[in-house]
């Protein structure tokens, strides 16, 4: 199964970001991808955290969800919509939600980001909990590829990557990590953590990311990549800027690695 990790440098205009995402998704589909994953915050990287409140949508309706469903149907593509802001329990917060759309344009799964990023090194400061309400449930879905293989696909978002127990609970063949890692933390830990999660779970990892300097001044690390179950990087975007990272996932390779090293069967805790 060919997959695509979409790298973006999203800005402050939802309309402009959707146009850019549509062009990249069309490139992925034209290259033969069956599954394309957009990065976290693909539809908005606002000037302030609170900008998310103005564009939040109710689950099941809204311009961003309509775009994802229509594009999936038009391209005949599984699309994972990075994250978008959905309504939360109160007016001061949103859910940072990753939605999956099947090729018929229907929403097939929803995951609300569980772990909320906070970082302060004296020069940069972030605290997602100011505006985002965390989710509580792990989520996975089944994707039947064109070759007849059945893949269990587990969802996560960005900062979740630092919590290995989430991935173990998913029991997945493919792990999705749409992200907007800062340049500082990404440079230090991005590839290390992605490869570790792949090896620990003997699973493929698809990690699309924001990558570049945004209108709001934030710089994200990028390096969108796909990692195989042995920890090898199959494909990576090494340049900043938008682009499509393509790789082939092999069900036979997955079975081979899990057969040679049956670590998942050896668990005792």
Automatic annotation (TrEMBL):
UniProt-listed InterPro entries: C-N_Hydrolase, C-N_Hydrolase_sf, Nit1/2_C-N_Hydrolase
Matches recorded under Pfam families: CN_hydrolase
Coiled coil: none
Superkingdom of the source species: Bacteria
Keywords: Hydrolase
Domain CN hydrolase: from-to ranges: 1-251
Entry keyword annotation includes Nuclease: no
One GO molecular-function entry: hydrolase activity, acting on carbon-nitrogen (but not peptide) bonds, in linear amides
Record bears the keyword Hydrolase: yes
Name of the protein this chain belongs to: Carbon-nitrogen hydrolase family protein
Organism: Caenimonas sedimenti
Lineage: Bacteria, Pseudomonadati, Pseudomonadota, Betaproteobacteria, Burkholderiales
């Amino acid at each position: 199964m060919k997959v695509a990790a979409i790298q973006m440098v999203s800005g402050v205009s939802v309309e402009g970001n959707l146009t850019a995402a549509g062009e990249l998704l069309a490139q992925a589909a034209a290259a033969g991808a069956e599954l394309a994953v957009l990065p976290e915050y693909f539809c908005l990287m606002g000037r302030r955290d609170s900008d998310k409140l103005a564009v939040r949508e109710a689950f099941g309706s809204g311009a961003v969800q309509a775009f994802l469903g229509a594009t999936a149907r038009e391209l005949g593509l599984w699309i994972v919509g990075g994250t978008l802001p959905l309504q939360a329990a109160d007016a001061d917060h949103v859910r940072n939600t990753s939605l999956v759309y099947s090729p018929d344009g229907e929403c097939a799964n929803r995951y609300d980001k569980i772990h909320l990023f906070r970082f302060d090194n004296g020069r940069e400061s972030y605290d997602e909990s100011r505006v985002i309400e965390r989710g509580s449930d792990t989520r996975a879905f089944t994707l039947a590829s064109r070759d007849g293989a059945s893949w269990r696909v587990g969802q996560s978002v960005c900062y979740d990557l630092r919590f290995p127990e989430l991935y173990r609970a998913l029991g997945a063949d493919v792990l999705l990590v749409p992200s907007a890692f800062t340049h500082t933390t990404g440079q230090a830990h991005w590839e290390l953590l992605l490869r570790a999660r792949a090896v620990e779970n003997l699973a493929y990892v698809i990690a699309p990311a924001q990558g570049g300097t945004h209108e709001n001044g934030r710089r994200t690390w990028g390096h969108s990549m796909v990692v195989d179950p042995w920890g090898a990087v199959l494909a990576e975007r090494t340049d900043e800027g938008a682009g499509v990272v393509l790789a082939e996932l092999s069900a036979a390779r997955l079975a081979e690695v899990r057969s040679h090293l049956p670590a998942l069967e050896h668990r005792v805790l």
